[in-house]
Amino acid sequence: MADDRIPGGTGVDGVASSPGAEPVAPVPAVRPFLVTAGRVAGAATGPPIPVETQVVATAEGLDALDRLSFERHDIVAACKQPQSIAELAARLRLHLNVVRVLAEDLRAAGQLAVHVPDTAVTHDASVLRRVIDGLRAIPDSRGVLRDTD
Fold this sequence. Notes:
The chain has helices at 32-35, 59-63, 70-78, 85-92, 96-108, 119-122, 125-136, and strands at 5-6, 10-11, 54-57, 83-84, 112-115. It is an alpha+beta fold.
């Protein structure tokens, strides 16, 4: 599959890409179940890691880059800076569950460090209220603020 981006910073639809943004790889033609060998959970037991979990490559993972298979290589290489599972899936254009399974495998191999958020904080209603209030404080495209509830 060809990459739809045109050199010079614009895509096929004429929309300018942001300067300094990393190029996005073409969408893979391989089915997700082939990447994970049919597995829907990683090697570790327990629930899958949440999408907001931050992952970062370890020194061992960076040293093993040239020995890793395609998707595993891309995940570890992209994790030189911490990012969430959701961000990683979007950046690499991989299915979210594929990234979860491979991230769990890479963690088990010591090639990724996984930082699961504190569930007490993520389920705090006051945090959600502050996020909603912050979003409402952003004006729309006409410069009009949204009304509250």
